[in-house]
User: Fold Deoxyribose-phosphate aldolase from Trinickia violacea.
Amino acid sequence: MSDAPTHSIVVLRGAPIAPSVHGARNPGVPFDASWLDALRVNHSAVERRTATLGTRRSVKKDAQAAWLLKAVTCIDLTTLNGDDTEGRVRRLCAKARRPVRADILDALGFDPDAITTGAVCVYHRFVAAAVDALSGSGIPVAAVSTGFPAGLIPHPFKLKEIEASVADGAEEIDIVVTREHVLTGNWQALYDEVRDFRAACGAAHLKAILATGDIRTLSNIAKASMVCMMAGADFIKTSTGKEGVNATLDVSLVMVRMIREYRERTGALVGFKPAGGVSTAKSVLAYQILMKEELGRPWLEPELFRIGASSLLADIERQLEHHVSGRYSAFNRHPVA
Assistant:
């Protein structure tokens, strides 16, 4: 690469950009149905707003590389397949420790140990193995729970699954809500369910998956977001990645507006996690712009922003290689694990 241009990101050079991922908890508030009565969503206005995200701002060159490196630190590197093995999980954890190739980071002015992903997300079966593989790294393990992805096992079993994952070392629990509660407007039942999950988590942070592709309307998404936060969710998350439609900018805008509303009412900061379908560097930049414009700079950090992804990292690494070399490489040169 003797002909490659030299790049450095001065604003970030040499600084670790994967801080502690656990900030203050959302304690929740007592259920108040009146908070939901005034919630209205203008679908056309949502579409107009999200349509501008990729056009009003342009992030290029060194700035784009910096944003993509920041995105890496917010990825929940995920494997949730029926054919997962302990070996695959341990390889994923190794990638989480060093998500970007050392030669690329060196060209950008970073120590290879300066950047890690935000977390590794696995089924309960692999929590202990992931905790062992990540020992000493500071990277938390997130466990999907409560009968993921459908959430249709008995409630006591859901609580036991959470407790088992916490006992094995999971610091974050990604729960799925009962979609029926949302579809029938039984908001008290949804609140009670998530409140129980929050209690079962103990010190582990709770990420509530709304399965937005299943609950169908933006009004349902707004109300479910608010109820989960009232019940003490530390993050609200779009999808399991298993629905027909997963994360979109439209549902994400509605959810982050609810986070803003909840902050204004309570002062509590709640995180956001889009999951499923965020697979390219271009798409993740749109989500970062959304967070910056709607919620502010703190929501570009892993304490308050995560991206549930498996293939995204490979495309980000590919874009970073192009930034430092001027050439694109094949995807198979950037394996996720």
Observations:
- Residues 36-333 form a domain with the TIM Barrel fold (CATH 3.20.20.70).
- The CA atoms of residues 143 and 276 lie 16 Å apart.
- The first strand starts at residue 75 and ends at 78.
- Strands lie at 75-78, 119-122, 141-145, 172-176, 205-209, 235-237, 271-273, 307-309.
